[in-house]
């Protein structure tokens, strides 16, 4: 790997590399990831190492005292190795020529959030700026060393997008990749949450909770891992219901088993049964006071007559999280209209790329077309309230 000795001397920080997050103590990793999302935590990196076939490498910067001051996870592979939703050919799908060869992703390769450059929060601003530029240079150098023909940071929020761009990374055209719903929780109880909503919505939620309570369905924490076969089958059926390609339940079970083994008490799995038969399951994680609830499986015939979707998907996890002191919850990327009506906001996540020389010629036009189409599709699918939240947070770097 190339070394920028002048920059390293200026920063008093030298770059090394590790091939497993277990080479880095959780305390050191948590120090550089402090203030970042669940998708930057030590356990999530361990989970990815176990589940992905990409070539994972961590670029690390230590000061002269040996303190870890910055880190950048990288994921290298071709389109058949990197997770399918995160290849550039999926992000920008137009008639323009899109790079589909060997790629290095920075920051994240799975999940719906990318914290980009991980730098200790106590690094002074001027040093952080210089360190960010050095990290971008080292990232490019590593990509060249493995023969990558393009690189990208995907699912990046606006603040991290700005830092990457200021550090000199990325094509000037930025693409909208996804939008994530999140909820800031009130102090104590579910009633406190309800009081943040308009009276009509409060009444509707109380009606849905009564409908669920009168349904005879039972719910509670899953028996881990005994319930995993049933849960995996239900989640696979839910994917199919929504038109996704068939998913092997065995693979979902393996994911659940890995999550339970790695995250332990920080995994959240709630199930709902109708006379013993599994009709609903929700799975997520706790990370400090932030909870992430991305996966839901439902029997839709039961859900239509019991308000199961809203209760198991939203209300019961909110109650559960409040009891454990959560302050913020992420609810994933789908059904944003229903989530906005229940007090959630949405945050756009962006794709920042450096395409190959072959793909760069049509990149700007392709990204503009992608952004226009994505905004139109978002508006049609999620309604005006969600669309207004999206346009209010639209990045100035994302041309339309």
SSE arrangement:
Blueprint: H1 5-11, E1 13-18, H2 26-33, H3 42-51, E2 55-63, E3 68-77, H4 88-91, E4 103-106, E5 118-119, H5 125-145, E6 150-156, H6 158-166, E7 175-184, H7 190-194, H8 199-213, E8 218-221, H9 228-241, H10 249-263, E9 267-274, E10 277-287, E11 290-298, H11 300-306, H12 308-323, E12 328-330, H13 336-341, E13 345-354, H14 357-360, H15 363-392
Parallel strand pairs: 4-6, 11-12
Antiparallel strand pairs: 1-2, 2-3, 3-4, 3-5, 6-13, 7-12, 7-13, 8-9, 9-10, 10-11
Helix pairs in contact: 1-5, 3-10, 9-10
Keywords:
23% strand, alpha+beta, globular, 400 residues
Protein model, in words:
The chain is α+β, with helices and mostly antiparallel strands and 400 residues long. The protein has helices at 5-11, 26-33, 42-51, 88-91, 125-145, 158-166, 190-194, 199-213, 228-241, 249-263, 300-306, 308-323, 336-341, 357-360, 363-392, and strands spanning 13-18, 55-63, 68-77, 103-106, 118-119, 150-156, 175-184, 218-221, 267-274, 277-287, 290-298, 328-330, 345-354. Mean pLDDT is 88; it is low at 1-10 and 84-99.
How much of the residues is beta strand, in percent? 15-25%
Poorly predicted runs:
1-10, 84-99
- Main beta sheet: 13 strands, mixed
Using only C-alpha atoms, the radius of gyration works out to 22 Å
- How would you classify the helix and strand content by structural class? alpha+beta
Q: Could you say which overall geometry the principal axes of the C-alpha atoms support? A: globular
- The overall pLDDT average reads 88
Helix content: 40-55%
Count all strands and give the number: 13
Topology pattern, helix = H, strand = E: HEHHEEHEEHEHEHHEHHEEEHHEHEHH
Termini separation comes to 38 Å
Number of helices: 15
């Amino acid at each position: 790997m190339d070394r920028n000795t002048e920059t390293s001397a200026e920063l008093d920080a030298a770059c090394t590399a590790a091939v497993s997050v277990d080479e880095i103590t959780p305390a050191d990793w948590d120090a550089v990831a402090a203030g970042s999302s669940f998708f930057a935590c030590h356990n999530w990196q361990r989970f990815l190492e176990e589940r992905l076939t990409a070539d994972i490498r961590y670029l690390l910067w230590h000061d002269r005292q040996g303190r870890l001051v910055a880190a950048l996870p990288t994921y290298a592979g071709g389109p058949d190795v990197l997770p399918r939703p995160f290849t550039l050919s999926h992000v920008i799908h137009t008639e323009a020529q899109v790079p589909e060869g060997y790629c290095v992703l920075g920051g994240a390769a799975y999940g719906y959030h990318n914290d980009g450059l991980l730098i200790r929060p106590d690094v002074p601003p001027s040093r952080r700026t210089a360190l960010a530029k050095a990290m971008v240079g080292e990232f490019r150098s590593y990509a060249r060393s493995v023969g990558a023909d393009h690189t990208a940071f995907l699912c990046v929020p606006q603040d991290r997008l700005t830092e990457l761009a200021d550090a000199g990374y990325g094509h000037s055209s930025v693409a909208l990749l996804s939008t994530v719903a999140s909820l800031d929780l009130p102090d104590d109880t579910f009633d406190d949450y309800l009081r943040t909503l308009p009276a009509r919505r409060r009444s509707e939620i109380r009606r849905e909770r009564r409908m669920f309570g009168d349904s005879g369905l039972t719910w509670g924490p899953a028996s881990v891992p005994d319930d995993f076969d049933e849960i995996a089958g239900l989640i696979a059926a839910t994917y199919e219901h929504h038109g996704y390609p068939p998913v092997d339940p065995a693979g979902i079970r393996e994911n659940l088993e890995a999550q339970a083994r790695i995250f332990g008490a920080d995994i959240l799995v709630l199930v709902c049964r109708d006379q013993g038969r599994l009709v609903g399951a929700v799975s997520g994680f706790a990370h400090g006071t932030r909870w992430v609830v991305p996966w839901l499986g439902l029997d839709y015939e039961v859900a239509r007559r019991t308000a199961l979707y809203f209760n198991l998907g939203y209300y019961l996890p909110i109650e559960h999280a409040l009891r454990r002191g959560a302050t913020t919850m992420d609810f994933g990327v789908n059904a944003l209209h229903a989530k906005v009506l229940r007090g959630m906001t949405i945050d756009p996540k962006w794709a920042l790329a450096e395409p190959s020389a072959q793909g760069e010629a049509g990149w700007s036009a392709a990204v503009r077309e992608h952004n226009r189409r994505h905004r139109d599709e978002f508006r049609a699918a999620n309604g005006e309230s969600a669309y207004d939240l999206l346009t209010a947070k639209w990045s100035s770097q994302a041309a339309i």
